[in-house]
Amino acid sequence: MSYDPSRFVTMQNLKDSVARIKSEYLSAISKSGHASFRKADAVPTAATAEENILYLVLNAETGNYDVYALVEGNVEWIDDMKVNLDGYVTIEMLNDLVAGQSELFEAEKTDLTASDESIIEAYFTEHADVTPKKGDVFVIDSIVDGTVYETSSYKHNGEEWTAITGNVDADKVIMRGTLMLAGNYTQIGNWTKSQNGTVEKDVDGMSVGDILRDITSQRLQPTITANPSVSGFALSGAKAVEAGTVIDSASYGAATLNPGSYKYGPASGTGVVASTWVVERITNLATEEILSHDGTSLPAGKDTNDDAGFIIGDEGGDNVVSSLKYKVTATHGAGVQAEDNLKAPSDPAVAIAAGTKTKETSAFTPFRNYFYGATPDVEQEDGTTVRPALDSAYVRGLTASGKAYAAGEITIEVPIGATRVAIAWDADKTGVTKIINETAMNADVTSTFTIYDVSVEGANGYTAKTYKVAVYEPAKPYESAATLIATLG
């Protein structure tokens, strides 16, 4: 039932009286039972009073509650207490006040052949001044040679002790001694013996769960299936580019640390975590640290070379590098101990060691284009035509390969009116070995081409290199289109 909690402060008086009653009178009136309170309108007679009941009767003169109990066949006044029970104190509430007075008894069993009942009996024989009552609890710890075999518990129901242990986990039932294997068989799971032989298995101190696992499961030790590694961290746009290409800012991506893995567990992973990251710029000239970062991962970043940028080239110069890439080094702690296939700690211990892991990006590198094409003469303002000079600007105006020189074939479509066919390549390369006119029955026209040396610049006017340029200029412009196939060696 509900009651006004603001008035509960007066219950302290009740608790004080209850404590005094318990210490001075309860042992005399409760015997083997459990005393409880009951509010009464009048003092009960010996015929109507019940044992182990404390009757609360309001004393009109004092305003207190007199406490009566049946003691040795007579109703006796025990004490009085000052507490207002009107409207909110019930028998259930009073019983709750003394419910917390249940006692806990404990004993240790060192002889596993002894019964729990004998341990309880011996305890109360030794403590003859103590009488158990309903609600009391008795706990017995079975400990032999430092091994806890079992902890059992009992609750007094007012008449006797009853077990409250309930179902017991197999890992908490501890065996002692040996287990005999005998009979016409050779194997039980992982346990073996000779046919009709007898073997004693030492299971002393093992739980039933451990024994079953030992029989049915073979314990396998783990291995490190993958060491930590750096993921991510790529250099944006990194590839071979034409010599002279300008990189204003080199951008690298974020990086994380893959923590590695164990063969069996734990399920939570290896526990490997990165703590610091160092980024280095690597060029053909030097290796330089550009960033140190504390954290479990590395954010994306940029390198402007102090706002000077980079030129990817093959002939040197200010801010010129022939290779540009980046390297990240992650420092990480040790991993947790791996588990075996039965989820126990590995033995011997297996764990990823603390250390560092690195990763390099792809690189920017330079190449020189080769060029090819067919062009007409250029018409002047006065209506005359002029053939362009065979120089760097002309060569770079032809079709560029867009990639480094490689042996193979290139196709040149010659339009009507063309007055020059040209193929240009880095003089350090093999160059053209054969040219055929596919539209003239695959005629070999290699000998009709003349080879010239021309200085050709790289991208953005970068330092020129000597090119070989194979040129064919017909006596008159092409009157029909043609297809030439040139072979680069």
Short summary of the structure?
The chain has 489 residues and is mainly beta. The protein contains 5 helices and 39 strands.
Give an overview in words.
It is built from 5 helices and 39 strands. With 489 residues, the protein is mainly beta. It folds into 5 domains: 5-99, no CATH class; 104-166, no CATH class; 178-216, no CATH class; 225-365; 371-488, no CATH class. Strand 2 (53-58) and strand 3 form a beta hairpin. It is elongated.
Total number of helices: 5
Radius of gyration, in Å, reads: 50 Å
* Beta-strand segment tally: 39
Beta percentage is 35-45%
Structural class: mainly beta
Mean pLDDT: 88
Any low-confidence stretches, pLDDT <50, length ≥5? 1-12, 25-33, 87-91
Cross-sheet strand order for the largest sheet: 32-29-34-38-37
- Count of spatially separate domains: 5
| Helix fraction bin | 10-25%
What is the rounded distance between the termini?
104 Å
